[in-house]
Each structure stands twice: as structure tokens, then as C-alpha cells.
Amino acid sequence: MAILKIARMGHSVLVDPAASIEDPTAERIQRLIGHMKETMADAQGIGLAAPQVYQSIRLIMFLDAADREDAVDREPVVLINPEIEHFNDDVEYGIEGCLSIPGLQGLVPRHAHIGYRGVSPDGRLIEREAKGLHARVVQHEVDHLDGVLYTMRMTDLTKLAFDSEMKHVIERTQAEARMAEANQEGFDEQSG
Ligand code: NI
Q1: pTM of the prediction?
Q2: Which of 51, 76, 120, 183 is deepest in the core (most CB within 10 A)?
Q3: Which helix (H) or strand (E) holds 109?
């Protein structure tokens, strides 16, 4: 197996839509999956999409863990030709990074509860529901197949920061939430 080079933001492979895979069980696909698993583990990522290793095909892998600590030593879930379904319009904000955008993190809105389906490397249909970090990572990786990076999903670019500065974004966001809550209480009092 081999550790592959990871494409970085700006390269066309990250903005081009990826092609469907006709035969998920093909030898070429199995070999790529092996290389991608090794590459993701080496980079300490929790998800990786084929376009990130310069393969413009619809293949993703991710750790379906409840949190980052829980993700250690897990075998990644591999999904070919994945599709996402939204159960409702509930959105959650959470911190994301991307191996193709090293050194940065951002606060990104994502659907809180999704269903997803795809084909496993041995050709079986996989269908699951996901919430929280699990739902977030699946949406992030499927976005890579459509040429979308997390920064393109952000609604407030003041919440994009270097890794070392992200703590300031979190503090600011928490202060804003407290202020919004206080304003809401004030409003309730006035209206009552
Ligand atoms: Ni990414």
C-alpha cells in the first residue's frame, strides 16, 4: 500500500464533480481503497474522499464515531456512489477542518439528522441514519464529490480561523449566543 499525496484547495480536482463508479468491486477500486485508508490514517483524518487523492470518482471513507476520541483505531466505513437524504430542515453549527485545507478550521452549518445510502466495496447496499459528528462528516465527504469545500458552506467567514486561533472563534461564538439569549429574555419581558 502507499500513502497518497493529498490535493489542496485551489486544485481543479477539488471543484470538479466526480464520476459515478460502475463496478464497486473492481480491482482498481479495491487497491485505491487500501491506499486511501493508509493515507487517511497517516494524516489523522476522520474522513477522506477520492477527489482529495486526485481520483475524480464517487468514493468516500469516514470514521462513524460519536466524537474524535471515539474515532481512534476504528476501521473506516467505505461508501461508493453515496447519496444523502435530509429528514428535516434542522441545522447545527460545528467546527470542521479538511485535509485539503491544512492549518484552518471553520464553523459550518450542516443538517443535524440525515439518512445516507451507498454501496460497500463488496457490492452490498449500505443504508443508515446519522446525527451529530457522524452526520457532519458524511455531508462533508459527499460534498467533496460535488466539488464543494466546507468553506463554501460557511455563512460567516469571521468564523474561519487558523487552528491555533480557533479558540477565539469559539469564545466569540459563545459570547454571541449568550447575548442573543439575554436579548431574547429582554424582549420577552417587554412584550409581556
Ligand atoms: Ni475535506
Answers
A1: 0.92
A2: 51
A3: strand 104-111
What are the Cα distances from residue 133, in Å, to 9, 29, 113, 114, 119?
23, 27, 10, 11, 21
Calculate how far, in angstroms, residue 78's C-alpha sits from the geometric centre of ligand 1: 15
Q: What separation in Å is there between the alpha carbon of 3 and the centre of ligand 1?
A: 17
Cα–Cα dist 168/174, whole Å:
10
Specify the CATH number of the domain 12-155: 3.90.45.10
Ligand 1 center from residue 31 Cα (angstroms) = 21
What is the per-residue pLDDT across 100-151, written as a single tens digit (0 to 9) for each? 999 999 999 999 999 999 999 999 999 999 999 999 999 999 999 999 999 9
Active site residue 129: no
Q: What is the pLDDT of residues 62-72, one digit of tens each?
A: 998 766 666 66
Cα(first)–Cα(last) distance of the chain, in Å? 67
How is the chain split into domains, by residue range? 12-155, 164-192
